[in-house]
Amino acid sequence: MVCIQKIYIKLFVLLYCIPLYAIDLQEVIKMALNNNYQLENKKYLIESSKYNTKSQHTLFMPSVTFGYTFNHRAPQNRASYSSNTLNISGQMNLFNGMQDFYTYKKSKTNIKIQENNLDSNRNDIVLNTKLTYIKILENKESLKIAKDSIKLLELQLAQATQFYVHGISDKSAVLSVEVNLANAKIELTRVQVDLYYNLDILQKLSGLLLNAESLEEIEVQENISYEKDNLLEIIYANNPQMRAIRLSMEQNRFDKKIAEGKYYPQLDINAAKYWYLTGANTSLVNFGLQSQVRVDATWNLFNSYAAFFTIQSARANTLALNAQILDLRKDIATELSNLLNSLNVAKEQLNLAKVALTQAEENYRIVSNRYQQNIANYIELLNAELLLTNAKSSLVTARYEIAMNIARIEHLQNHQF
Questions:
Q1: Could you tell me which of 137, 204, 229, 399 has the fewest CB atoms within 10 Å of its CB?
Q2: pTM reported for the whole predicted model
Q3: Chain mean pLDDT for the chain
Q4: Alpha-carbon span 130 to 138, nearest angstrom
Q5: What residue ranges in 154-312 does DSSP mark as E strands?
Q6: Sign, CA torsion 45/51/57/59
């Protein structure tokens, strides 16, 4: 019993308590973005990629090493002796078929890939937050409609009961209204549960305890229209999935260039200075000094066709990625067509629902007056109430369906704010 009371108290707080402050959709989106650990993960991956790019940049810089060698020898016919060698050497690559250059470029592309992954995650979070927020607003309106329906049915029940007590109508009128009232209460409970569920999702997304009344209404662009061809061009340019494939194609080109670079000669410059020390006190006796500078040139004549097969693999990947991007363009065009059609249908339904609501309100007023005068029967009154409730619900559904379609179109555009 205590657990049930706690559940009802929690539901009451979430649904009906007076909010301390109002919050709009943009604020909730910002909180959701700040509350997501996947985004933190992507940010660290970007940082890791940047450090990797810096490490690749060192390929263009010389390397300097310092060495020490101790050597002890014991010839058969001579006294044993020891020697010490100190050396400092430097090496720098002058040319290796541009492999270092394209490796560096590839690492920079990897940063773009990680940034695009972050942007894609942000885009998904924004869409989920928008849709959940809109569903809560729709649940709020549906809750009001359900409560209004219950009030009307309770009035009808009182009238039907009076008519039955005074012998004006039979008990079937009372029973019919009671059944409709029970169904209306069931619908109210269903909407409350749906609202609680969506609020729970929004709280997990934003990381804050929210209630339905604190969420501000959104401005639904009821007359919005899109030009499909222009919209497709924007989506193809900005959609994270499209960008991911283009970046993969860019990396694949660099892989091909790196493999082709293995057919070119490699040119290195080396410089070294040696100090030879010998004797018991090796730090004082200078035996010799040598310096050298050399240029090394090497050319790969045969490497078991490794470079050749790497190039062929890159070419095959290019064909695969081209097919993938064409397929994605077709999928996006199909999805956009469906969204635009759904948007147009919702706009048309909204216009019809506005007219239907006006007519349903007038019809209910007339039938209710006729019923009170015992001219209309209870069936006509119940039908009028049902038409009124359905007209209100259709208006709410169409209005927020427009908002959700717009949110999904903006998700394709990667338009987050």
A1: 229
A2: 0.82
A3: 86
A4: 12
A5: 266-278, 286-298
A6: negative
